[in-house]
Design a protein that fits this description.
The structure is a homodimer of 313-residue chains.
Chain A lengths: L5 H9 L6 H14 L5 H8 L4 E6 L11 H15 L4 E4 L6 H7 L4 E5 L6 H7 L5 E4 L8 E6 L1 H14 L5 E4 L6 H16 L9 E2 L5 H12 L7 E4 L2 H14 L4 E6 L2 H5 L3 E5 L1 H18 L5 E4 L1 E4 L5
Parallel strand pairs in A: 1-2, 1-3, 3-4, 4-5, 5-11, 6-7, 6-8, 8-9, 9-10
Antiparallel strand pairs in A: 10-12
Helix pairs in contact in A: 4-12, 7-8, 9-10
Chain A binds a DNA duplex (16 and 16 nucleotides) through helix 1 and helix 3.
DNA sequence: TTGTAGGCGTTATCAT
DNA sequence: ATGATAACGCCTACAA
């Protein structure tokens, strides 16, 4: 230490106003010269704050987590949002309980993506004091909230668009129905059909899982029906893509609307419902930081979606 | 503390063999009862090891980092590989120098993805003692190595396939040529053409940037040539997709081979060169852990690729 | 305005 | 086999 005490250096770095102009300058000079970098572990230890946000990403057992492009976009928004507040992201490796990992690292907050409603850790987490924001999962707790897109309205927009084009036999290939988005998109589909007095035969509701393979398989099932639909609302772009492929192979035509507006949607000219995935992540990050730093209330955000008309419907 | 000293508890958790059977059992019982979880910060402080691997992801200014699906798949492999060795991933938010962030958090190692060869931090990083593994960037240093796919061979396979189908006028839409994969794929293309004595007019080399828009634009340019090619090697599936779209709009036919085998490649039946992205991440993680724990030599891995024949060529 | 000193939770050294 | 105890690097009363 060239000149002053460690306490003063600490003040220069954290509360510069407490230090006289001159000494401050002198200290900063040495800080630069030595390329001094504060040690995060030591700081975390004494402050009991890590400036870390834990991220949990799961998309079910069959599809390795993180693989779905949706989460990637959300992650980008999240990273930017928390990054601007000096937080870094801690990506937990699957395996050990993420609750334990979060506690061990003293993360200041947690973002959950693709976590199952019945996850063993989830309940234990919600009653804790650590701030949590879930994406696409309607958790609630004293310090736990969520952000998601307006899936019901999105589905209604899709069906309304199809109906507006004159379709009366509109089927749907759903996402995983035990997820909130999957259930909500089905609900919106049903609501809009009902509102318009259009028929809804049970065999027009095909249960998929958000992934292309289910789109392919369920569309074939629809085509094989005695009275096939003339239009399909797919609960994800991936499903729509699989369906489109099945359609091409069968040399059949059907109107299709997807959900997400993934990058490939534009490429294959898929009409779809756009959800702003990056904004979802950003909202999650902002809400989390607000909970951490300003003790804000847990969020319960529903972000708007919009219809993007292209060529498939 | 119900019974023994803190030192003993520490031993039970870290070197159980040093503790007698009976006390060990007693301590573990209390550990469970209290749901005791060791504090990572304190441990990092004294051990000077954080069990953290820093991850840097950049894909250039125009396209926000992390957006490219390629990195996502790599990340999955990386997470699994380091996770099985008790490491978690620290995803640095862009902005502050990742070198400083790495030092501050005392990460045990660093994985670089999409980092520019001329990045300001890169040089400073390579001369440090912290282990580094870069993906798709040929860095070298006492503790720095890399992993990448065999891009040259991949490009040659693509061109060879096209030539085998009887094509003699084969063009290419390249990736970013200041990246190693971009340059290597162009090199492979040139090599294979030369080896077969096929012509290589300069206007057949169109410079793209790995993204769909460049595929679309450059394919149009190729079609406008006085003597258009009959086949195109696209340096990425994204480029191929853009090109396919341009082709469809122009109502023209051309053989196309892509590179990556992205998820959508199968969907649009794109013939492509498959690189195992997850394996790339896993290799990076394994090599990094080996450097950290066994003081292994820095890797210089080139992973094999394979041709996947589908319908576009 | 600045320095002193105790403590954050853990590990590791040295005794016992 | 176990217990004291000194670090690890930093922050924050409290004193001066």
């Amino acid at each position: 230490m060239s000149g002053v005490s460690v306490a003063t250096v600490s003040r220069v770095l954290n509360e510069p106003s407490l230090v006289s102009e001159t000494t401050r300058a002198r200290v900063l000079e040495h800080v630069r010269a030595l390329d001094y970098i504060p040690n995060a572990a030591a700081r975390t230890l004494v402050r009991r704050r890590s400036q870390l946000v834990g991220v949990v990403v799961n998309t079910g057992v069959e599809h390795p987590d993180l693989k779905h492009p949706f989460f990637q976009d959300v992650l980008v928004g999240l990273k930017d949002a928390v990054g601007s507040h000096e937080y870094d992201l801690l990506l937990f490796s699957t395996g050990e309980s993420f609750l334990r990992r979060a506690l061990r690292h003293q993360v200041d907050g947690l973002v959950l993506m693709g976590v199952d409603r019945n996850d063993a850790d989830l309940h234990a987490l919600l009653v804790r004091e650590v701030p949590v924001v879930a994406v696409d999962l309607d958790v609630a707790g004293p310090r736990a909230g969520y952000v998601m897109s307006d899936n019901v309205t999105g589905a209604r927009l899709a069906v309304a668009h199809l109906a507006g084009r004159g379709h009366e036999r509109i089927a749907t290939i759903t996402g995983l129905l035990n997820t909130r988005p999957g259930a909500d998109r089905l609900r919106g589909y049903e609501q809009e059909l009902a509102a318009r007095g259009l028929p809804l035969p049970p065999e027009y509701v095909r249960e998929g899982d958000f992934y292309p393979a289910s789109g392919d398989a369920e569309l074939r099932a629809l085509l094989a029906l005695p009275e096939p639909p003339t239009a399909v609302f797919a609960a994800s772009d991936d499903i729509a893509l699989g369906a489109l492929q099945a359609l091409a192979e069968a040399r059949r035509e059907l109107a299709i609307v997807g959900f997400d507006d993934a990058e490939l949607a534009a490429i294959v000219s898929l009409t779809t419902i756009r959800q702003d995935k990056t904004a979802l992540g950003a909202a999650a990050g902002a809400a989390l930081v607000a909970m951490i730093e300003d003790d804000a209330a847990p969020p319960a955000l529903v972000l708007p979606v919009e219809l993007v008309v292209r060529e498939t419907a």
